[in-house]
Design brief:
single chain; Porin; 2 helices; 8 strands
Length: about 180
């Protein structure tokens, strides 16, 4: 937990010279409207734990509206009690992608929607075995940004407790964009 807060502090301090929101006046080139960055996420519950790093690239269509694509890399650890009473633990590296849309409501507050596809393992309780499948996340939420640093809270409306690598439908991410 100390490493998490130290990383967030470093990103915030380093971000003092960069801005997450670009000024768009209508004459900018493609690269002047493009931004890069990513998120760090942490999700945990009574049965699983997930750590995420997700680089992203976005394009500012207007000074308020942007959209982009990202990659998702997660480490996932899961613990389950089976029907016969034994505990099963497994861990996995998960890869996927996402598309997002972001709307800057004010200078520091934004709304965000995203669609995420992850190839992830899960425990099939009916077959009593580990399987791998594609999970789809439909996230909606918002956040705060200042000088490159972002704090985002999202809710996954298509969360599946059995197949999702996220412990809960509510996800918080810390990010940095330039």
């Amino acid at each position: 937990m100390k490493k998490f807060f130290l990383t967030a502090l470093i990103l915030f301090v380093c971000g003092q010279s960069a801005w997450a929101q670009k000024e768009i006046w209508g004459e900018e080139s493609f690269w002047e409207r493009t931004y890069f960055g990513g998120n760090f996420g942490l999700s945990f519950g009574s049965n699983n734990f997930t750590v995420e790093a997700s680089p992203e690239a976005g394009y500012m269509f207007t000074d308020r509206l942007s959209a982009g694509l990202g990659l998702v890399f997660q480490y996932y650890k899961y613990k389950l009690e089976t029907r016969n009473g034994s505990d099963i633990e497994f861990s996995s590296k998960i890869f996927g992608n996402r598309a997002f849309c972001r709307y800057n409501i004010t200078e520091n507050i934004f709304g965000r929607a995203e669609l995420e596809f992850l190839r992830a393992p899960y425990w099939d309780t009916d077959a009593n075995s580990k399987k791998t499948g594609t999970t789809v996340g439909t996230f909606l939420g918002g956040g705060f940004f200042s000088r490159g640093f972002t704090l985002t809270a999202l809710y996954n409306f298509s969360h599946d407790y059995e197949k999702s690598p996220y412990a809960e439908p509510f996800v918080v991410r810390v990010g940095y964009y330039f």
